[in-house]
Structure prediction request, 129 residues.
Amino acid sequence: MGEDSRKLPSIIIYGKPKCGLCDRAKETIASVGLPFVFLNVEETLAAQTVPKNWQSSGLVELRAMWALCGDPIPFIVVDGRGFKSLADSLPAMGYAERRRALMRGQDAERSGDGPRRAGQDSGQVAPQH
Prediction:
């Protein structure tokens, strides 16, 4: 199956505003083009309502992790599985494969073998009639 046809993982980052580790997680995940949702952990835990998708949202794992570890932020949920660190979550989201694919694409563009952008000169001369 090609890289473009692979289903993107569902990623939720629970963190806090002005959190350096949370910012790093967001930047790292965004750097390979993976979409994610960022939720303020304090607001989420303080909410009195349970979201409709609570079974797959990672909320149960979040509450358990918070109780066991104190302040595990960022807490990252990938396809319903909770991870207490960015490093632990990267394999589940296919980060390394996406990064390699991006690097191959950049190398191909630099060498001139990559896909051409619209309006880019191909270097070929059109035949004259």
Observations:
- Confidence is low (pLDDT under 50) at residues 1-5, 117-127.
- The CA atoms of residues 23 and 31 lie 12 Å apart.
- The chain has one domain: 8-107.
